[in-house]
Specification:
The protein has 207 residues and is an alpha/beta fold. The chain has eight helices and nine strands. Strand 5 and strand 6 form a beta hairpin. The structure holds guanosine-5'-monophosphate (5GP).
């Protein structure tokens, strides 16, 4: 992930932004479905739409990732300490690593009047659904053979890790009916447009 995290313009918001409400969006789907690419595309097209809440993780930093930008990278001890302190809105173990959404990230942005995007695996998304029923859940799907091709091309996981992620992907796909929107990412440009339309529509103030 390498999101645009620049703040929204502080003066003269455009009229569209004035009529928007700050909402919580959860974007989920299999690893390799292109969640990060679509979120980047969405926020490049319109940086005022939302900001991404940075999660904490115990997984090692990948090449090109930055602390506090892609994730807050924590040791397992530090992560467990934050769990005990009640700092997480939800947290999961995924592919042998811990991932968690910090309450402070969500509440800080919503308090500023900014919509928030969480990029989560499915179990965490369904926890958010229970804890924050007003959240809008979007599932990004991708055919299994294409997923395998993308994960192999990404080259950030070993063969065994890719097999594990594909197994989890098949499981996660069976829960997509629990989401408000399902988007099949077979064409990035088209999917960014579709995602933008969903986010704009779901952020409209109801008169
Ligand atoms: P990756 O290791 O590829 O960055 O992320 C693995 C999976 O964990 C992805 O599906 C990603 O959406 C998910 N993920 C990232 N942060 C969180 C989080 O805070 N909570 C949950 N539940 N999943 C997360």
């Amino acid at each position: 992930m390498d999101y645009l995290t620049g703040s929204a313009p502080s003066s003269s918001p455009c009229s569209a932004a004035r009529h928007r409400i700050a909402r919580l969006f959860v974007i989920s789907g299999p690893s390799g479905a292109g969640k990060g690419t679509l979120i980047r595309g969405l926020l490049t097209a319109d940086p005022t739409l939302a900001r991404v809440a940075i999660s904490a993780t115990t997984r090692p930093m990948r090449q090109g990732e930055r602390e506090g930008h892609d994730y807050f990278f924590l040791s397992r001890d530090e992560f467990m300490h934050r769990v005990a302190a009640g700092d997480f809105e939800e947290h999961v173990e995924f592919a042998s690593h811990c991932y968690g959404t910090l309450k402070s990230e969500i509440d800080g942005l919503l308090a500023e009047g900014t919509s928030v995007i969480l990029e989560l695996e499915v179990d965490g998304s369904l926890v958010i659904r229970k804890r924050r029923p007003e959240a809008c859940l979007i599932f990004i799907d991708c055919p299994a053979d294409e997923l395998q091709r993308r994960l192999e091309a990404r080259g950030t996981e070993t063969e065994a890790e890719i097999a594990e992620r594909l197994r989890i992907a098949a499981e996660q796909s069976s829960e997509k009916h629990l989401f408000d929107h399902v988007l099949v990412n077979d064409d990035v440009e088209q999917s960014v447009r579709a995602l933008r339309a969903i986010v704009q529509d779901e952020s409209k103030e109801i008169a």
